[in-house]
Amino acid sequence: MKTKKFPRPHSFASIPLPKISLPCRVACIGAVPLVVALCLAVTSFAAEKKDEKKPEPPRVLVALPLAVEAGTNTTIRLRGLSLAETKAIRFVSTNAAAAAASTNAALSATLKTKGKAEVPKDYDVKRVGDTQLEVELKLPASLAAGPLALVVITPEGETAPYLLTIAPAGSLVAEKEPNGGFRQAQELSFGKTVRGTISEPNDVDVFRFAGQKDERIVATVTAARMGSSLDGILTLYNNAGQILATSDDSEAGPDPLLNARLPADGTYFLGLIDAHDRGSPMHVYLLSLNRTKPEKR
Predict the structure, then answer these.
(1) Of 19 and 125, which is predicted with more confidence?
(2) Is the pLDDT at 21 greater than 60, yes or no?
(3) Fewer CB atoms near the end CB (10 Å): N or C, the chain?
(4) Which of 49 and 182 is assigned the larger pLDDT?
(5) What CATH number should be reported for the domain whose range is 59-167?
(6) Which fold is adopted by the domain 172-292?
(7) Per-residue pLDDT, 56
(8) CB 206 within 8 A of CB 50
(9) Whole-number percent of the chain with pLDDT over 90
């Protein structure tokens, strides 16, 4: 009996290949550089798309000045990121009081100018911004004191609400230069708020007030919490120039809060500086001074 042999599979080497004509071979060889070029182009395009940075979303970083009074027509500057193509500005409601303010027919914001803004040397653009708006505000006298939320509208979208401080009529005092020493100190009354700027490096703003023995004073700086570049240090001096108290940071962050009891009747001084000896138009602040009755001892 003959043994039946199973057929052996062909190896790849034993499979006959079709013959390719010379023109076809030339065409295939000529296509190789084109394929390689296309692959390189696609890879390069993908790398460029990957490296392409998305534009910063629009954002308001700080208002210059930080506060305005009700019952006035005033111009402010809004500094931030991606604001150069701003279309409009509107007020929004964040609470019941803000809702009433935002629907006040006499309240308006008119865009006057928009564009790029200079970034000071060695400053982080994401903290100080590179675009700026000039906005004219009409604030009715009926506008309640407190935060007023505004939104900037751009082709890239809307900014998050920025809270501009509305101060009671007659409560704001403009800082007046020169006020860089005890002899040049600007007078400050209790219940008032200075609207000022540490305008250049190593700038010092000094204010003078009259106090009574055992009177407790509270001096508050509002700056960093509202987007200002100022990291303030506030110091209380007596009439002889001796330091009585100093405040750097507070629970509100870098903004100083100075609470002190006055040792005697007389003249006192408050000095405000930047902790890093910096200064610029973005180092804006509000300095308020209040007191309580003299403590009984």
Answers:
(1) 125
(2) no
(3) N
(4) 182
(5) 2.60.40.10
(6) Jelly Rolls (2.60.120)
(7) 81
(8) no
(9) 72
Residue 20's alpha-carbon distances to 3, 30, 31, 293, in angstroms, are: 41, 15, 16, 107
Can you give the pTM of this predicted structure? 0.79
The answer on pLDDT for 156 being more than 80 is: yes
132-139 mean pLDDT: 97
